[in-house]
Input
Amino acid sequence: MYETILVEKKERVATITLNRPDKMNSITPQLQKEFVQSLKEADADNDVGFIIVTGAGRAFCAGFDVQTMRDNPEVFAGANDLLTIIHLNTPIIAAVNGYALAQGFQISLACDMIVASEKAIFGSIGARIGEI
Output
């Protein structure tokens, strides 16, 4: 059903995994669309008691895919993922397992709780890549 995320429901927990480990789970328009859709579906499911968001591989999320942003900045829908998280009725936990940078950092902050591994690194790197 999804190409860039994994969704698993076990008991009352929906786990959404950003699944572009070779690109540190950086956000493309497709990933953003699938992420927002999966959040809404999990929130609408009465059998889901809470949602966990995590990333595959060595990063939670390194933010927007820089090459895609540079080539087509208009394709990103802005903060749709953040607004969706903020307006969820279902509690959401960010399970951060590595880098949470830029938009990935913001996604973790929008969640109700962050559980971070000892290897978690948080940061806002917009100035380093020429973004605000």
